[in-house]
Amino acid sequence: MLLREIDLQNTILPPCHRNNMSKPEGTGGAGQSNSDNSEERDWAAVKALFDNAKTTKKPRPPKPSNAVTIAVSSRTLFNMVKERKVFEEEGLERYVAHQLELEDQPFTPGVSFPFVKALMNVNARLRELYPDDEELFDIVLMTNNHAQVGVRLINSINYYDLTIERFCMTGGESPIGYLKAYMTNLYLSKDSKKVQEAIEEGIAAATMFACGSENELSDTQLRVAFDGDAVLFSDESEIIVKEHGLDTFFRHEKEFENKPLAQGPLKGFLEALGKLQRKFYAKNQRISCPIRTYLVTARSAASAGARVLKTLRSWGLEVDEALFLAGAPKGPLLQKIRPHIFFDDQMFHIEGAQELGTIAAHVPYGIGQKYDKGKRIDTSDTEKK
Length: 385
Hints:
The protein has 14 helices and 14 strands.
């Protein structure tokens, strides 16, 4: 039995806002207190509905303010290449009719599908250790599809037994404005413009890219690999590399070794992963933890690595493995790691990862967007238009 099958007509779910892992803080006023009490009552009602629905096989979705919310677009979750072609060549009305005709035929898995399955595995492990806890991953389907297409999406989600109860279908409008209302910690899309909008709104986001032949991925451990500069950290050091060269960069990093780097767009997501990891550590399950994180950076370790590690330490964060490549290609190392997702700000690293079977996600942030394979992109013609 799905959430949509349970009578929720009298349950009102109030909108809330959150940035990264922060939770709304009370102001101490009566209005805030009443709002908080109302929210608690509403979610208690939802919990009761699920607990009383004995026939449901689906686990109850966590309270959004406690969850790590991952918003995925329908085109990353499922392979909708053929449907996209119908939309682009024949228009919206034919596209909707096409989806209705095939609504009993499930979509095939898309590029974010393995990542979503890995999130669900982590949730299953957390529920075994903490049956009543709500610090879990909550997956939201975020799409600008028409609501009529929702039936095929729901059928596909049920076919693959995915735990996705919250949808946002905007009927052609951009869903970006809803990301904060859904308390999103990470947004994954195939639309680079929407990802850029999300980044500008302060929401961790990345554009996902498929690869021709994907590496076999772990069924029991979520593996997430991050680049450092302009992903976990700001692009302040990368600016120095681009504008003044490596020698100046090495001197700068040595001089400011004990000054933490500013945070980048994905820092909050690493923080969220670390928070869930510590729940396993508390049960003496560090070795068998179903989440593993990796830093895969082009930095040199001896010349520029200390500042990175000290920055993570100052944030109270850690990664399970730190790989300093000193400018070497990332693809072969990623092929060994086999992450469910790899985040990088530079497309040539994304392309190198793809060529060797790694699912990669581009973070459009920082000075790296002005360069292609180390050469500055000439924007003069664009600026004149």
